Structure formats: structure tokens, C-alpha cells
Amino acid sequence: MDYEQLRSFRNESNPFGRRLGIYVEELRPGYARAVKTVAEEDLNPVQVPHGGVYFSLADTACGSAMVAYGTMAVTINCSFSFLKSARVGDTLTAEARELQGGKSVCVLEARVTGGDGELFAVGTFTFRRLDKKIEL
After folding, report:
1. Helix axes 51-67, 3-12, angle to 10 degrees
2. Cα(65)–Cα(28) distance, rounded to whole angstroms?
3. Can you give the pLDDT at residue 16?
4. Which member of 3, 11, 63, 104 has the greatest number of CB atoms within 10 A?
5. 3-state SS string over the chain?
6. φ, ψ for residue 68 (rounded to 5)?
7. Chunked mean pLDDT (size 10), the chain, 136 residues
């Protein structure tokens, strides 16, 4: 599989991710890295990034790590912890790594960090592989 082509496909065919400014930088089977710069539009009424920003970034990274195996996958469960708040202008990076692979169900961990490596959120995601090959 051409992972650069798959990365481009993931970025181009994800309207929700594009709307949030999420960009997949790297992927390979069981690993992916996605980034997003926090914007004013990402803030909640408390004036910190909405939790969905961190979660969506992490979920996108994990989903990208899963599809690098060549089939579509969907999130079926997640445990997610928000540790601290970023600020407008901060670039967040989510790195996803597979913890346990399986024929139909896999578990991945995502860590959302800032530019200096500061940990903002961490989550464990469970995915189901679908019987649908990715056509590039």
C-alpha cells in the first residue's frame, strides 16, 4: 500500500476533519500522527478549547493508524482523559499507537501533546475492522 497516497486520501475525504483543521501528517499500520492548531472557533464558553477538539484529533489519528492496514474501521468504544487546556495558537499533535491487534477488534492509545511535549489528553480507543477494502 502507498501510505503517502493513503494519507492524502484521509486528509481529502474527511470533511469533518477539514472543518476542524485536523491534518494527518504520517501513518503506517498501527501508527499515525495528526496535528491541529487551536483557533478562536475551537473555544468553549470557558474560553479554553472544547474537549471535542482533543477527542476528534485523537480519534482521527487512531482511525488513520487502523486504515493503514488496508480496510475501513470504526470506533466502537473509547476512554478519554483531558489533562490540561491548550491556548489559541498552540499546535496540538496526536500520536496513535496500536496496543493490541486482532482480526476484527483492535485497541489503540492516543496521546495529545503540545509543541514542547506537554501532555494535554490521552485516550484508549477500540476499533472494529470493517470488511471493506480501501480503494485509492
Report:
1. 140
2. 6
3. 96
4. 63
5. CCHHHHHHHHHHCCHHHHHHCCEEEEEECCEEEEEEECCHHHECCCCCECHHHHHHHHHHHHHHHHHCCCEEEEEEEEEEEECCCCCCCCEEEEEEEEEECCCCEEEEEEEEECCCCCEEEEEEEEEEEEEEECCC
6. -65, -10
7. 92 95 97 98 97 98 96 96 97 98 95 95 97 90
The identity of residue 3, as a single letter, is Y
Q: In degrees rounded to 5, what are phi and psi of residue 49?
A: -55, 135
Amino acid (1-letter code) at residue 116: D
